[in-house]
Amino acid sequence: MHHDYVASNPQNCSYEFYMPTVKNMNISFVKLGEEECELCLLHDVHTKDCSAMHGCDLCSSWDKHMESAHVSRMHYKNDLKKVADDEPSCVNRLTV
Question: 30: which residues sit within 8 A by CB, 6+ positions away?
């Protein structure tokens, strides 16, 4: 990711600066497919057998879970915008 960032941004940003900045922003890099939580994985398996579709307890708790995840993502994006607006240099470009 650092290599891609440096390639697309002419401003010099060392790996030593990049990684702690990304970590402080609570950004992590994972392989696709590994970012789902246990409830989401359980729900994926459950929906194949569930005839109620959003009427059973697991489906209802998953709906609440997804609503919470949406709100968390919104707050996360707002926090990133605050960092981008408040901090100059390399940090600003990391959030764009």
Answer: none
Q: In whole angstroms, what is the distance from residue 11 CA to residue 42 CA?
A: 44
Indicate the pTM of the whole model: 0.47
pLDDT classification of 67: cutoffs 50, 70, 90: very high
- Count the alpha carbons within 13 Å of 35 in the hemisphere toward its beta carbon: 7
The residue extents of the domains of the chain are 2-30+56-94
User: Could you tell me the two tokens for 66?
Assistant: 């997804």
Q: Map the chain to HEC letters.
A: CHHHHHHHCCCCCCHHHHHHHHHHCCCCCCCCCCCCCHHHHHHHHHHCCCCCCCCCHHHHHHHHHHHHHHHHHHHHHHHHHHHHHHCCCHHHHHCC
Distance CA 33, CA 44 (A): 13
